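Message: I would value a second opinion on how I read folds in token form. Give me a protein, with the fold worked out from its sequence. Write it directly below this note and I will take it from there.
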Amino acid sequence: MLRIKEAIVVEGRYDKNTLAQMVDTIIVETSGFGVFKNSEKLALFRRLAAERGLIILTDPDGAGFVIRNFLKGSIPPEQVKHAYVPDIFGKERRKRAPGKEGKLGVEGMRPQVLEQALRRAGATFLEEGAPPVRQGRPITKADLFVLGLSGGTGSAARREVLLKRLELPVHLSPNAMLEVLNALFSYEELADAAQELDAKKEKEEK
């Protein structure tokens, strides 16, 4: 069982049940879009964020991003960390059919994937202390352009391939991607990943 300082926000009770089997912390639910009209629940999230920090862990589909963005605009950013699970297509065992976008939600993720998402978000694991400060310089919009990830021919397709390689949701826009990348990677790590993409593509074309 992983002991984490921050509280974790998920969308529903099945997500909470999955996470509770591996994480020892307060896990709270948005009840899907229910949080939009529930001022008491939002007040609780704000209090948890102020007292111990908050990790937002929503599904990687469009609905999950709507909920994430709502919370992002409702809670001071310095009190919130964002954990992202990768796009994995399939359906949860309890469901008869996949979701609208065909992606697994938090409840369908393996424990190793969830742990990696939490570590990348900078969760404070109590037995291990705070994670080390990320080394290297920040990533800028100019970097994304130079690396062919925005503003150029084929940049959208290249961005999607890179996000998949980094196990991040392809739903991210260039601006959202910049924010996420800076939370999880240094410029040097991103440049290395982009270089590996080029090397792989060159090898495939030979």
